[in-house]
Design goal:
about 45% helix; 15 helices; 8-stranded parallel β-barrel; alpha/beta; globular
Length: about 325
């Protein structure tokens, strides 16, 4: 069966960047997109908060919808607010609206949003109908296998969503009650693939080209979505895509190239959030870059406790140089 993606995949098997709260902000998505990604998805945005423009959503409101392959992910529990937020984002240039029905966080589920909607498919479909009816751009859905092992209803949700006009479904290979524990079950995504005639994307624990191949083989999915595997390695999506396409794998940046990349990302974070908040937001990314590069503990401590941007930039070469003693 041939499936058509609602965007230009650029390859036979697209590799997408997963939405991750507090991580896939505009500066990070732009770094990943710079290496080449079939699609990048914004952090989850609460639909009502977005429409009402509450202060907590203002940073997320700068979603970079004009950047090209960008989808805006919305969450909510009321059809009116979901439709209004989708209409607003499409009006600002979003290429795709993605509906979150997979977030397992207690504060989201407690508000009857995210993966809580898998416990009430009729209500979930009312939200989907509202969003699809509100916009002309493609609407996609991201969800999980089900609420728990006794409620594995992703195939039914996907089938009904596709019937309502959803153009792509991404499945994280865990239930809500698993959160992120254990191993993602890619084979459990196969029934979803068999239930619909729209593209299904496999998500969960896809951190390497080998994992991507296994996920595709076990699920029969048409593409993969990478989340935590991109932390500290924004080039990882491009490497996975190259392997899946049978092309030479682009090398990871090293030395001066890596320092320049991380420095530019760091300055983009400060520019986006402002100095004080930016310093705090940047620390997790710097820690992931250091871990990926094998940097030493002393250099990491110095960078993560630095309070001046110039000091951080000056320390990057040490942070991103493999620790020879640890390697030995």
């Amino acid at each position: 069966m041939t499936v058509l993606f609602p965007f230009d995949v650029g390859t036979s098997c697209p590799v997408l960047l997963a939405p991750m709260a507090g991580i896939t902000d505009l500066p990070f998505r732009r770094v990943v997109a710079g290496f080449g990604a079939s699609l990048v998805v914004s952090e989850m945005v609460a639909s009502e908060d977005m429409v009402r423009a509450r202060p907590s959503t203002r940073a997320k409101a700068e979603l970079g919808v004009a950047d090209g392959q960008t989808a805006v992910q919305l969450a909510g529990r009321e059809a009116h607010w979901m439709a209004e937020a989708a209409r607003m984002m499409a009006g600002q240039g979003a290429r795709i609206i993605d509906i979150n029905m997979g977030c397992p966080a207690k504060k989201v589920v407690g508000g009857l949003s995210g993966s809580a909607l898998m416990r009430d498919l009729d209500h979930a479909l009312r939200l989907i109908d509202a969003v699809v009816g509100a916009v002309d751009v493609p609407v996609t859905l991201k969800t999980r296998l089900g609420w728990d092992d006794d409620c594995l209803n992703a195939p039914e949700l996907a089938r009904r969503a596709a019937g309502a006009g959803v153009r792509m479904v991404t499945i994280h290979g865990r239930t809500r009650c698993q959160f992120y524990k254990g191993q993602a079950d890619w084979s459990a995504i196969a029934p979803v693939v068999q239930a619909v005639n729209v593209p299904v994307v496999a998500n969960g624990d896809i951190t390497s080209p080998h994992a991507a191949r296994q996920a595709l083989m076990q699920s029969g999915a048409a593409g993969v979505m990478v989340g935590r595997g991109a932390q500290g390695r924004p080039w990882r999506l491009a490497q996975i895509a190259a392997v899946l396409a049978g092309q030479p794998v682009p090398p990871a940046p090293q030395g001066a190239d890596l320092v320049a990349l991380v420095g530019a990302h760091y300055e983009a974070i400060l520019g986006f959030y402002g100095r004080d908040l930016g310093l705090r937001v940047a620390r997790k990314h710097l820690g992931w870059y250091a871990e990926a590069a094998g940097g030493g503990a002393s250099a990491r401590r110095a960078v993560l406790t630095a309070t001046a941007p110039a000091q951080v930039l000056a320390l990057l070469p040490d942070l991103l140089t493999p620790d020879q003693e640890a390697a030995a």
